[in-house]
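Annex B. Sample input.
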Amino acid sequence: MDILNVTVGSAGFEQSAPMIQVREPVLFPFSLTQVSVFGALDRAALDLAMNKERCAAIYLEMPKSLEDRPEIARFESGTDTLLATGVLVRVVKVVHLPDDGIRILVRVLKRIRHIRETCPDRIRMSVYEDLVSDAVSIPADEAAGTTKALLQMLSELPLPEEFRVAAMNQADLERLTDLLADNYHFSTEEKVELQCERSVKKRSSLLLEWLNRECEVQKLGNKIQSQVHEALSQNQREYFLREQLRAVKEELGEEFGNPDIAMIEERLKNRVLPENVEKLIRKELSRLEIIPQAAPEYHIAYGYIMWLLDVPWSEASLDTLALENAARILDEDHYGLEEVKDRILEFLAVLQLKPDRKSPILCLAGPPGVGKTSLGQSIARAMNRKFIRAALGGVHDESEIRGHRRTYVGALPGRIIQGMKRAGTVNPVFLLDEIDKLASDVRGDPASALLEVLDPEQNHAFQDHYLEVDYDLSRVFFLTTANMLDTIPGPLRDRMEIIELPGYTAIEKREIALRHLVPRQLEQCGLSDKRVKIQLSAINEIINFYTREAGVRQLERTIGQLCRKVARRIVSGELPPSGKVSVTAAMTRELLGPRKFLMDEAESTPQVGCATGMAWTSCGGTILPVEVISMPGKGDLKLTGSLGKVMQESAEAAFSYIRSTASNWGIDAKVFEANNFHIHVPDGATPKDGPSAGVTLATALLSHLTGRPVKPRMAMTGEINLRGRITAVGGIREKVIGALRAGINCVLMPEANRKDTEELPEEVKRAIAFHFIGTFDEAAHLALVKKEN
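Annex B, continued. Sample output.
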């Protein structure tokens, strides 16, 4: 295959040459450039070119950044997209590389435009036409002016001297534009645009625009560098002048000093610091004296010294150890919570006998709204100590506890040291709130950092990364709060004394509302207790039918809503302007709207196949009715009511026990084979789980099978095993109070739970008759109505 007219031709005259595609670089006429050859087709084309006149057509693969530029012509060759504008080159040298690659040195002859591709003898050939520019149509004066402008911009840019000389000696505008495009560090996209542009005039305009941009960037860079140099020179000048002024002052016997240093010296005279801390401050102070005040290091050193001076090292508040006074304050602020109050009074009693006793580390665990955080404030007030609170919810960086090292910009101590600075004493009550909501990620585990803080054997030498000196936390009374203990890591939980705060009962909520919530909300709404009286019936109405929670937050919000509506009626004239307004249950329903919750009520008449159990939730106790029916079938047992796995197993155990002892109750064993049994626990949409309904399930089954009804207003709780023994369960206090609220007057519970009734309020003990059972026989005897002879 002969190569036709590879060196001469004109636009519109078709010529052909072996075709080579390259990934880089962008080639321009008259340049001498190295190109890598990769594919087998390209090597074959190179071999053909070397056997003839050493000429080839080179096309650049389309850059991905230009694929959305439809104005740039392109064509498809196999699976690749190539630029339609290419160059005709003469191969000067071929080098075979050790990795079997080929690198060629080419001299670019001219621009060409691809027309079509042919593949004779499996060698790619490009049929092309010359891309003739419009250089001849540019007036000589305009070309000279454009050339001068380009050379002027080049003189303002930092370029190699040989490139500058070559450009200065180039008089032809077209060759100058190609020289600049090839040698200046334009982007690939910009070089492609210059290569594809036929018009020399447009190429010149693009070059002028881009070179002007480069000149502006260069000027801005020079300006910034000059400003930095001037700032450094000014700092050095100030330092030397300051040193000279110091020397003059010393010669004259006058004082000269930095006011910051003078202030630090004054504070050191008035503070009693540990020896190692004072030594560290003196060392940093000597560094501060020689650092220019404008230097960044000055502010870092100054901030570090101030933190060392601000943190308390020996200052302590005087504890109030009178037990009567502490008990009075705790009772004023909180109703109930006797276990926590007793623990605080025990600690105060020990402090009277052993003043250097280490403070306990308590964890108050309970549902939201039961007063955990406010209890910390009451403890601090009862002990006459400062109170500090640090919220840990969502903290996921260890540095939040231990602080950041001073090498980091903007470094600060951790929350522990920051809290101690705010307290100003070494023995505050320090509340770590929501400790169960700590998180962890690649920046460390803050729960692990708290291991040292909450360990009485280690926290006397707590290490903060910022202070880098031991700090004594042994006199701090640490309190933590949590809603769930399961999310607290075991080692951290082991370091704390857990005190669980159960949800408030309806009786306790009533007392809290009367003592604290109602007076506070009346005051916030501008009402006095002489003008508005919220009756006990209204409070009971809100507790039973408008709130359903373990704490009292929603209760206080609802009381506040009630007070605001009363205030509006007084202002609008709907209520009498004078006299006392009595808010009753009926008025409460009128103001707050329909009841949001309905109370569970016990059966008032004997029922067959229906027994009443007791349940414990985070919102308090309630009753749990169990219903049993049977229908002809094959002895299957069906359980409904959103029962959990444990409760399902408890029902199966109760069913197996009743079936195994059927003869003892006069039940025909064939009943179990000829019928299917269905046990349902309303309300079906509420999930239920736990083993404590075992005795209730067995009683309901036995009542259905024997036809003996269960006594009315009787509730029961207890786990049953396959031998019929009734074992202990939890939540007795909440269950019993919930049962009383539902109208229960008789309760059956395991003998092992007799001790739990001692913690019940006296009014509950008086209102309910308790029967303690050890076996199911005892429970059936007490629960079922006797058959009439």
